């Protein structure tokens, strides 16, 4: 698991945007049926279950989740006489094969395949009287005696077939077949397979309390679930790709900034912030902060935040967002508005007073993926 985490982190680190501490979390519910891997009757020995899963994606490939499930029926095991027969809580590693082998495209695919693997702990509740033992051994050993609850270490291996839904792919529905191992049991005396089966739900197949990690101590499970991915600091519910700028784009941007610096203040006022309310003082280049964005994106880079950090607390600002000529007019207008808004939101958190934040779409014929901040 550590090797996979290191590999997937290095694979994704240079392609996706920075992930904050509380980004990429999700919560969901699931339910389905389970039965013993061996010694069962298909379709008649099914144990229904329901559970909750909470997790986080660290990269588009690797994540961790905590899952807890309750099992409601005693089939195909001996009855415990309780409504909830057992609970199983596990820490799961998730590996998205679609993103690992196919690459992450900027948003989740409609259909993806992931693997889950993890370890946990299961608790079988107390059984009393005739439920403590199968009928063959009840009178001989445990009639009218309370049985102590059983605890066993568990392990889960499964495949998730995932469907990402919603306008921003914020919902995910999945179907998960899995096999769940229960091991670290206690061997019993006197034909212990039967006694052990009543207490733990499985035949022991152990030797002096050593782990028994095999299909005889396991059950298969088929669950379906739905999860909701919380909104991230980048404004979406998923990872976004950082598009590196080429040198030609950087040179064009520098030329545009130099041109603005060499022009008279009144020209800058007219062409860059022409619809902004009349300033209370003459505009100088030193009053302008230029924030640049990657193509098609509106998340703030570290460099952009460093530039905005220079705006003093309590200052009044007006913000104009723009977009480059690529793409349709509607998309560029919305993108320019998002750029202005994300700059405004960041400055507000620093105590800056935002008088106006507007998007102007495409301004000119060259690359101008900017948000211009006028500090009054």
UniProtKB/TrEMBL annotation:
One Pfam family it belongs to: OmpA
Official protein name in the record: OmpA-like domain-containing protein
Gene Ontology cellular component list: membrane
Superkingdom, taxonomy of origin: Bacteria
UniProt-listed InterPro entries: OmpA-like (IPR006665), OmpA-like_sf (IPR036737)
CDD domains linked to this entry: OmpA_C-like
Alphabetic keyword roster: Coiled coil, Membrane
OmpA-like domain: residues covered: 280-376
Gene3D superfamilies (UniProt xref): OmpA-like domain (3.30.1330.60)
UniProt feature coiled coil, ranges: 243-270
Protein source organism: Prevotella micans F0438
